[in-house]
Amino acid sequence: MDNQRWLGIHIWMASPRLYELIHELDLPEAAWVQALFDEGRELFDEGQGLFVYSYRVGTHPALSLGALAGAHTAPAVWHTLERWGSEHASVLAPAYASGAGSLAALSPALQPPVRELRARFESVAIRDLLLVIAHEPGGHGLFFTAPRASGVRLHTRASRSLSRLAAELGAGLRLREARRRADDQRLSASERRVLRLVANGAADKEIARALGVGLSTVSTFARRARSKLGCAAGAEALLAAAPGSEQRRRQLFARLSPAECDVAAHLLLGRSHAEIARRRRSSPRTIAAQCSQIFRKCGVAGQRALAAAMLGEAPLSGK
């Protein structure tokens, strides 16, 4: 079996921990990136190092870039990638994108900085890069970069495996960003408790009894919390993800196509079909069909049930 085919099988079948890490919502960002790097190094590093960049644009300062590299990586390769990443990460952020493959597989919008990178690499004996890239519209991005001394040529199975990895990484970024924004807000203890109870399926009357307040007070707490978070009903589940639910999300995401992974992440954020269609530059009819497939594959009846299955403690369907 050649190396490129083995790469795809290795990623898909031998790295469940990497996929579980992608869906980990509670690890601090630095620890999350470090864990992804440690796990990804076993898969991607062929002697030239692995670089994992995490960046955020539109903040103060305008760009925050963190990167990790293997200890044996040639300093010239590392510094070349570090400079290039710092200079061009902001180009990737304006629109959502995810993808994987070689330098040639990147979108046309990225070809100018890629040509520049190729020119820089001529002096350090690097011919190509294996890339796994994910971004989300809030300006947060993450990409794995593994230099290669020869050109990257991926067979179909390897390409599909890498595309799935990129899709799930994009979904994980979206959920982590929503969770981070929720954690950054100053919700009162009562507002947070109401949202957790809602996320766990409690009815308003049950919440009122649990808190010892009236129904109107429950509605007020929920409305204020959603307003602070800027989220729709259904996204509260992100605040109440059950411990160990990473494995559950991984099992359910494994049933979905790459496109469905992205749509599912939107659904977990409480977004409507129309909003998902706008963000994905698709039609509401296409999104509705994809949602139906997601619900069928995950064995749930709808959007709220999907959130409960992926973020709660309900037993998995055998589908």
Describe the overall structure:
This protein is an alpha+beta fold and 319 residues long. The chain has helices at 3-13, 16-22, 29-44, 75-92, 111-121, 156-184, 189-199, 204-211, 215-229, 245-253, 258-268, 273-280, 284-298, 303-311; strands at residues 51-57, 63-69, 98-101, 128-136, 140-148. It has three domains: 3-180, Beta-Lactamase, CATH 3.30.450; 185-237, Winged helix-like DNA-binding domain superfamily/Winged helix DNA-binding domain (Arc Repressor Mutant, subunit A); 241-319, Winged helix-like DNA-binding domain superfamily/Winged helix DNA-binding domain (Arc Repressor Mutant, subunit A). The protein contains 14 helices and five strands. The chain has a five-stranded antiparallel beta sheet, with helices on both faces. α2 crosses α10 (245-253) and α6 (156-184) runs parallel beside α11. Residues 1-14 have low confidence and may be disordered.
CATH fold-level assignment of the largest domain:
Beta-Lactamase
Largest sheet: 5 strands, antiparallel
What's the number of extended β-strand segments? 5
Q: Which sequence of SSEs, written as H and E, runs from N to C?
A: HHHEEHEHEEHHHHHHHHH
The helix fraction, in percent, is 55-70%
User: How many angstroms does the end-to-end distance come to?
Assistant: 32 Å
Q: How many independent structural domains?
A: 3
Rg from alpha-carbon coordinates:
21 Å
* CATH architecture title of the largest domain: 2-Layer Sandwich
Unreliable stretches (pLDDT < 50, length at least 5) are 1-14
* Number of helical regions: 14
Mean pLDDT over the full residue set = 75
Strand content: 5-15%
Question: How are the strands of the largest sheet arranged?
Answer: 2-1-5-4-3
CATH class of the largest domain: Alpha Beta
